[in-house]
Amino acid sequence: MNRARLTLLLVQIRDNPQTRDEEWRSFAQFCGLKPEQIRILNLFDTPQFGPEVLAGVDGVLVGGSSEASVLEPENYPFVVPAMALLRHCIDIKMPVFCSCFGHQLAVRALGGEVIRDQRDFEMGTVAISLTDAARDDVLYHDMPEGFMAVSVHRERALTVPQGCTLLAYTEPCTHSFRVDGAPFWTTQFHPEVDRAVLIARLTQFAHHYTDGEDHLREVLDSAVETPLSNDLLRRFVDRVLLPK
After folding, report:
1. Does the global pTM surpass 0.70?
2. Angular region, 129: left φ>0, alpha ψ -120 to 50, beta rest
3. E strands, the chain, where?
4. Strands 147-152, 155-156: parallel, antiparallel or unpaired by DSSP?
5. What burial class does residue 73 get, using C-beta atoms within 10 Å of its C-beta: 0-12 exposed, 13-18 middle, 19+ buried?
6. Is there a domain that residue 129 lies in?
7. What single DSSP character describes residue 145?
8. Which residues of the chain have pLDDT under 50?
C-alpha cells in the first residue's frame, strides 16, 4: 500500500467547530497523513448510519468526546449504531484505532463495563504501564515502560472485554487493548493530543473537568510533552495499514 493513497475514516464525536477541526488535523499530523486523506463521519451530524460508511477506506479512527457519553444512548442516539459499526469492523477485519471515547465505545460494544467518576478522575499527562502481552504487540513491542500520555476522561473501564488482550494501564483503569484475532486497538489516553492541544482543550472545557482556575492552572503546569504516545498513530499506519 502506498502511503499517499491511504484513506481513513475518522468517526468524530465533536460538536464544537473549533475542536472538530483541531482533532481532524491532529489525527492527520500524528498519522503522518494529509488532512484530506482522512474522511470525517461526525456523529452529531449523522447519528444514524450503517456499514456503508466504510466504502473506500483503508482503516478507521474513532476520536474522543467532551460532549457525549457511552452510558447514555437514550441521549446520544449515535452510540448504538457506532457500537454496531465497531463490531462489523471486527467481523470484516477492518483496521481500527479507537481513542478515549472510542475506547469506551469499544468496551461497551464488546460487552464490557464502563463506569463514571464524579471526581478524582485522570486529567493531564500520566505515566502508562505496559503488560507482558505488550512485548509481543506490533504497536507496543518497542515502547518503554512508563511512557507519558495525555489522559482526560470522566468514564473508565476497569477490565477489558472477553476476547481482548490488555496492553496498557494505569492504577485506576485499562488504557489500551487489542481485540484478539483482529487489527483493532484502543487507547483510553489520547495519542492524537500533545501538550499544546491539551492546554488549549482543557482551557476550553475547563467547566467540564476542573474545579476552578487554580485547579486548571495546577493541571496545566504539571503537563509534559508526550512524543511516544503521539507516535502510536504513525505506528498504526506504518505497521498495520501500509503492509496490507
Report:
1. yes
2. beta
3. 8-12, 38-42, 59-62, 96-99, 115-116, 123-130, 147-152, 155-156, 164-169, 174-179, 184-187
4. unpaired
5. middle
6. no
7. T
8. none
